[in-house]
Structures are given as C-alpha cells and as structure tokens.
Amino acid sequence: MGESAPAITIDPMRLKDIAGVLKIEKASFTIPWSKQAFYSELLENDRAYYLVAKAGDQVLGYIGIWLVADEGHITNVAVHPDYRHRGIGRRLMLAIEELARARRVKRLTLEVRVSNTIAQNLYKQLNFVSAGIRPRYYRDNDEDAVIMWKDLTIDNEFSYPGK
User: Fold this and answer.
1) Among the options 49, 50, 83, 123, which is catalytic?
2) Structural domain boundaries of the chain?
3) CATH dotted code for 8-151
4) What is the tens place of the pLDDT at every residue in 5-54?
5) Which end of the chain has fewer CB atoms < 10 Å from its terminal CB, N or C?
C-alpha cells in the first residue's frame, strides 16, 4: 500500500518557513520580497500576520496581512507554481479572512495586477469588489493595480446575485 500525500495545513508563518516562502516569491514575482523583509514582518511588525499552506514541512503557499484599526490590508499571497489551481489560494484567503474577523476587522483590501484576471476572479468569487485603479503601481513594468475591497460587516460565505 502506497503512502498517501500529507494533508495541507494552514498555520502561522514561522522563521523556519521563510526559505520555502522565498522560493515561491522568486517563482511568482519579478521583484520578490527579500529574506530580510520577511524577517522584519515576522519579528518587528506587530500589525503583520502571515500564514503558510504546508504539506508536511513543504511550504506550498503563503499570505500576509497588516491589521490597522478595523481594516486589513492583504500584502501578498502566492502559491508555488507546481501547486496552483488546487484551491490553496482560496484556502489561504479564507483563513486570513477568519483571522481578520476574529480581530474585529470590518473591511479587507488588496491590490492586484490589472493583467492578473485569475486572481481577480478568485477575489470576486470571495465577494471582493473593484474600487478603483492605482496607476503604475507595479515598479517592474509600471502596470496598474486594481484596488479591491471586501466589507466583512455585510458579507458571508455565499455569493450574492448580481455580484
């Protein structure tokens, strides 16, 4: 009988996870965050919370959020290219929303590349709405970002007709 694949868990990011997170950063972004940036977020930023999706000890994806007053700004979310389209990004988004709700956050926001329609569609499925454009937001190619918001005070897990 063969071994089954380890279950995917979502846990708080630890310093030991940073090496795996950096591999995903480099595979996902043209200007990846540095090791020092993640160390700073985990050790020095008391408004930052990061989660990792793991199978055993392998980091498959991660998400970060800054909580300021009653708002949460999702700073980054990425899944290793070999594990995309398996629902890991959705699970990370739902987990960070649960963390935010537990801390009485009322609204979530994020920016996403105009060209990243796959991510935009996921966020829309999770009831985020487009609220404008940040021109030339991305430094690597001056691409615009779509600003998206989600109001946690009126939302639930179900999609509303017309959204």
Assistant:
1) 123
2) 8-151
3) 3.40.630.30
4) 679 999 999 999 999 999 999 999 999 999 999 999 999 999 999 999 99
5) N
